[in-house]
Amino acid sequence: MVAGMEAGRRSAEPAVTERFVEVFRGALFTRSLGEGERVIVLHGGPGIVDHTYLLPEMDRLADVCQLVYYDQRGHGRSRGELNPDDVSIDRFVEDLGSVCDALELDVVTLLGHSWGTHLALQFATQRPERVNRLILMNTFPASSTDHARYVEYRNDLTTPLTDELRSLTSSAGFEEGDPELAAEHLRLLTSAGIKRAADASRLRLHFTRENVLRGRMIFQRFEQTLFSRPFDLLPKLARLTIPTLVIHGDHDFVPVTAAEHVAAALRGSRLVVIPECGHCAYLEAMDTVYAEVADFMRHERQNSRSTIVD
Fold this sequence. Notes:
By secondary structure, the chain is α/β, with parallel strands linked by helices. It contains 13 helices and 11 strands.
């Protein structure tokens, strides 16, 4: 593994290809680099952030596969009409399917971070025949019960930051979508789920006013629909056999139990809990992430398709 990690540091920077994928009422921005098996990267959120917060750390994985990032509907450089009715998990699953189609991929490996893991799991339960591997990093809750525990735990962790957060959110600039204030607010919130302050300061956020305002609408829409209603993906996951790597931090503001429940539901999964690491494993412990993903990809080459168990 050490040799693999060193290779990840030494490799020359690969060429980057950018393109747009046409989807219903819009087009999604994609960024690809590396060679070999293509892995679609699903960024966190939902709302405001796009794939760029994962860079440049995640690009190291281009040593072991071809990475395909894309900005989800309404995020980053993706474009088109953003109708509130299109801000739904089914539409986001359709969009992911369109990306797979554009890449001419019948089956695909998905790598999700945070909210991106939830999107990956939703796609896997709706279209299991199209997923051959899952890499879930800092797993988002897969059930209402785990989501409620996450919200409670996150609120406890952010309590010491209440005055600072209130000062930011009460300003006129914040309400108007000032990009710098929005970035400061998100960085402060995220710091509660990152073990070391130095790592939190390295979180890269690139916002525009339009991204901020659109992102807030997306976040609120999912809060009012998907996460305000009872949901439980775990029984559906238990019917799948998809080789899965689950990576979580022991100081994540999503409780480790949420990752444990996903790993226990998915047959043949491997759970890696990284010590002294929070919600941004790619930023806080990229050496470990690189080694685990490289090893997982190497040992799972023979698993070409997922199956569903009756």
